[in-house]
Amino acid sequence: MSLAQRVLLTWVFTLVFLIMLVLKLDGKVQWNWFLIFLPVWVFDGILILMLAIKMAGRCKPGYDPRNGSPDLRLRAWYLTAMLLKLGFFLTLCAKLEKLADVKLTFVCIPLWTMLLGALVELGMNIFPERREA
Q: pLDDT value at position 22?
């Protein structure tokens, strides 16, 4: 998938989600919150599928694992972050639909975990390990 296709896909899913969210918040539609977040989940599902395919590419014959170990760690972090984001959205929708009587603090735990991991990843990129020669 080219960069232009990925950008277009991101914009389309974001636009559809925002339109559905505004309609729900204005009271124009009485849709379920799970339906409102459906474009986000479809987009995240596509990203998870793409990540899984790229990670499975390591299993092909002739792949040198010494060259790709940091890449695998980074892709594993991306996959974990996507799953944490989906977990946050699922618990948020369950709370908004009153399916679960959960405190908002507990709903936000996956989001906070993802943000903390993003800060760690950012710190590792800003301050790389120093290697003495």
A: 96
